[in-house]
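Next comes a single protein record:
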Amino acid sequence: MDRNIDRIAVDHRIMGGVPCIRGTRIPVSMVVGRLAEGSSREEILADYPQLSTEDIDAAAAVAESRVLISADTDLGSCWLRAAHHYPAWC
């Protein structure tokens, strides 16, 4: 998996600081949520043509690192489910 997380931007002026794919207002949590729901990369790319496969991989890498960091907490066990419904947590 591409670990190129420089594709992720956090800026308090864009989406209130929610991590987004750089150059867009597409939250990482939305991408991760779609993957968690079973959407393929091709389906996500069809719905969001401004994204690249590298953007999707970077979002997944960020999610993976968040889960690993918080794996010893209740948040770690439910992060992927909650991220889609509560993007401000991401």
Notes: Confidence is low (pLDDT under 50) at residues 68-72, 75-79, 84-90. Residues 5-89 form a domain with the Arc Repressor Mutant, subunit A fold (CATH 1.10.10.10). The radius of gyration is 12 Å. The first helix runs from residue 28 to 36.
